[in-house]
Design a protein that fits this description.
Elements (H helix, E strand, L loop, with lengths): L2 H7 L25 E5 L6 H8 L6 H8 L12 E5 L6 E2 L2 E7 L2 E3 L10 E2 L4 E4 L4 E5 L5 E4 L4 E9 L6 E15 L9 E5 L3 E14 L4 E14 L6 H6 L2 E4 L2 E5 L9 E2 L11 E4 L3 E4 L8 E7 L7 E7 L3 E4 L5 E10 L5 E12 L10 H4 L9
Parallel strand pairs: 11-12, 18-24
Antiparallel strand pairs: 1-2, 3-10, 4-6, 4-8, 5-7, 7-10, 8-9, 9-11, 10-11, 11-13, 12-13, 13-14, 14-15, 14-16, 16-17, 19-22, 20-21, 20-23, 23-24
Length: 376
């Protein structure tokens, strides 16, 4: 695929560090809690910093012990103090529904609408053709796939900084997360299912939850993946977390223990140049991939896959969609292994011609639009 075409299909993003560990609610800061860095200003004391930053200002002696400070009334301007995130004062922060495709509803049955605000406690359920994109507080995105349930448990912004704390519940279905660069070091992000906790460190990853297990696949960065015993607290989940690096996946089942990381299957070999076929039906075959037992295919009318127009899981290396109108589309296919883990994505650009067309255009550059058409 040419560099120009690749730029069209995949908008390049540099994913930067964002580490997520579960919030520990206890009398003292938990050892697994990440630290928040504060630069000391002229005239700062530990009591003043406690009033400015802490949920309970009286806990400033814990900052003194954490930083081994002898005199709490004298702090060197320009020096750095570490404050356990579990001590910080937080403010609720709303997220935004940036796009909705197909059927998606709230717990009360009202439709989910693009542009609405997502607050703590709000739940979303997508239908068989439903897809929802959520813009997180820091600008990162979570894409909720079809037949999925999602609830926002916590969305907080830490005072005086860009650091955030986010926790979702995913009882069923699949979500795909992609972080923006420049996330604050002290930010925390976690998705919990009935079996597992997924905490994030600068990455893009997928989570799929069912009644039998939770699966995760990491396509960039690293996550902390932990089994979640019933009624377990966040500290226990963080302590038992297994790092899953880029290009690997894992599963947690009733045992509540992640299996050893499994290398993800490579991307299938889709055509590298635009594929032109007459509407309304699309059919594309590709070479079988060793280790694949099935393939997942999604067809979208935009490069970000916010407007999915079709999805299928097939056992043979051939995918097809019907009912398509003239226009441009993007096809994404990934292989699924014997564990049910989904591999790397392959991308192909599709041009659906008028139904009367018998041959593909001779010049893709002259006929294929610079951006995909909107969903019909």
């Amino acid at each position: 695929m040419s560099a120009r075409l690749l730029d069209f299909v995949v908008r390049p993003t540099l994913l930067a560090a964002m580490f997520a560990l579960a919030r520990a609610v206890c009398a003292a800061p938990d050892a697994a809690s990440p630290d928040f860095e504060v630069t000391v200003q002229q005239g700062d004391t530990l009591t003043r910093l406690g009033q400015r930053w802490l949920a309970d200002p009286r806990r400033w002696p814990e900052i003194q012990r954490r930083n081994k400070i002898n005199n709490p009334n004298y702090l060197a301007p320009g020096s750095t103090l570490l404050i356990p995130v579990s001590l910080l004062r937080e403010q609720p922060a709303e997220m935004t529904i940036s796009s909705v495709s197909g059927r998606a509803r709230h717990a009360d049955g009202t439709p989910v609408a693009s542009g609405e605000r997502l607050r703590e406690g709000i739940a979303i359920k997508t239908g068989k053709d439903g897809y929802v994109t959520v813009q997180l507080v820091d600008g990162s995105t979570l894409r909720l796939q079809s037949q999925s349930d999602l609830k926002l448990e916590r969305s907080r912004r830490l005072p005086g900084s860009q650091a955030t704390e986010t926790q979702f519940q995913l009882p069923a279905g699949q979500a795909e997360v992609q972080f923006t660069p420049g996330a604050a070091k002290a930010s925390r992000f976690e998705i919990r299912t009935g079996f597992a906790s997924v905490a994030v460190h600068g990455t893009q990853f997928r989570v799929a939850a069912s009644e039998r297990n939770t699966k995760t696949e990491v396509t960039e960065g690293t996550i902390a993946f932990a089994g979640l015993p019933p009624n377990a607290d966040a500290a226990a989940a963080a302590q038992d977390a297994v790092p899953i690096p880029e290009g690997f996946g894992s599963i947690v089942d009733e045992s509540r223990k992640p299996i050893a990381p499994v290398r993800l299957l490579a991307a299938p070999a889709l055509p590298q140049e635009p594929v032109f076929q007459p509407a309304p039906a699309l059919k594309i075959a590709f070479p079988p991939l060793e280790g694949a037992v099935s393939y997942r295919a999604r067809l979208a009318a935009d490069a970000d896959f916010a407007q999915v127009v079709g999805e299928a899981v097939v056992t043979q290396p051939e995918v097809g969609f019907s009912g398509l109108k003239q226009g441009s589309y993007v096809l994404k296919v990934r292989a699924i292994d014997r564990f049910g883990l989904e591999g790397r994505d392959a991308i192909a650009v599709i041009g659906m011609l008028p139904e009367t067309a018998t041959t593909a255009p001779t010049s893709a550059a002259a006929t294929f639009p610079s951006s995909p058409a909107k969903a019909p």
